[in-house]
Amino acid sequence: MGTKLIYRMPSTVIDEALRMLVIERLPVQAIAAVMGVGITSVKRWASCWGIPLRKGKYGGMAITIVHHRQAVLKRPAYHRLTFDDRITIQAGLQSNPPLSVRAIAAQIGVSHSTVSREITRHRVAFGVQEPRYSAAGAHGRALVMQAHKEHRRKRLDDPGCGRMSSMRSMTNIRRSRSPVGSVVSFLIGRICM
């Protein structure tokens, strides 16, 4: 995902509008009234950041955001970055002098490659300035991508033996006269039948 350009408004104004849209879940009309801009401008900002909007009387951001990670005794091996993690990344990049990617990763407790990938994936160019990272926009876009991935069809529909697509490929291996084919046919006979 390359950088996108947003013109004519200071980045602090756009960040504040995105904060109201993402965190406070205000309707687009209310944000436009508070910011003193048109509804189309707020919609354009949201589309540049990849935030889905709900239409109608109670329009606004279409996805609910969970702000804090629930306390767990043992942290899982893989977790998605939360809004708090993304705010930490933004604060580290905007500090004077800016923190290194490794220092930010140590604060959050993730790998430095995760932080680097997050910054690269969710930076946006504001006018003629260098591309910047915004936590609100990054979190909104990440939620959109996550929602799309959750609705994808899974590879195996049957959790037991996986008789849909994997059985076809195993049948092709079984037909071959190799030692692998005989082992596969033996295992299929033992597990699935």
From TrEMBL:
Pfam families noted in UniProt: HTH_38
The Transposase IS30-like HTH domain, residue ranges: 78-122
GO molecular function ontology, one term from the record: sigma factor activity
InterPro entries with a match to the protein in the record: IS30-like_HTH, RNA_pol_sigma_54, WH-like_DNA-bd_sf
Protein name, as recorded: Helix-turn-helix domain-containing protein
Native species: Brevibacterium casei
